[in-house]
Amino acid sequence: MRARDEAAFEAFVAARSGELLRTAVLLSRDRGHAEDLLQTALVKAYRRWSRIAGEDPYPYVRRILVTTAAGWWRLRSSQEVVALPAAEPAGPDATEDVAERERVADALATLPPRMRAVLVLRYAEDLSEAATADALGCSVHTVRSQTVRGLARLRLLLADPAPAALLEEC
Q1: Among the three residues 45, 76, 107, which one is the final residue of a domain in this structure?
Q2: φ, ψ dihedrals at 128, nearest 5°
Q3: Is 90 inside any structural domain?
Q4: What angle do CA 143, 110, 88 make, to 5 degrees?
Q5: pTM
């Protein structure tokens, strides 16, 4: 890779890795797996960087992230997964906010992978139906039906009339 491309890649990672990590955490429900998922996606993007650097690379890298996560879900379904609590830095006491985010994340984790991906992309990433369909490689109708079904399930699990607003806060 040329030095100019490498500098552009490093600038992209510095600017957008926080957003990609947030998406990865919502998709995987585990910070450690999310970091591994993001690293894998960035390695795949690095290999193709000369082809994607000319346009906005964020949607392309986000799609790599989502498709890699889907592959990991299939792989993890046959493996034992041990989740350890994440250590968070000390700061102001936001116990209620953290508890609410955990409650939403736990409910989100019970959804099937595609439904979870649709809700994360639609509400956490704020993508349109068409952009979500493009990112997942499915039809807009599939995105609509998965969104309706996913929000209905979250409403039942959370006993809250507006889970979409909660998802946006995560």
Answers
A1: 76
A2: -75, 170
A3: no
A4: 110
A5: 0.61
Are 46 and 9 in contact, with CB atoms under 8 Å apart? yes
Q: How many helices (H) and strands (E) does the chain have?
A: 9, 0
Q: What DSSP string describes 6-25?
A: HHHHHHHHHHHHHHHHHHHH
Residue 63 in tokens: 């799609």
Q: What is the pLDDT along the chain (170 residues), one digit of tens a residue?
A: 677 778 888 999 999 999 999 998 888 888 888 899 999 999 999 988 888 867 788 988 899 998 888 876 555 555 555 555 666 665 565 677 778 888 888 888 899 989 999 999 998 888 999 999 998 999 999 999 999 999 999 888 888 655 555 565 55
- Asked whether residue 62 falls in the same domain as residue 103, the answer is no
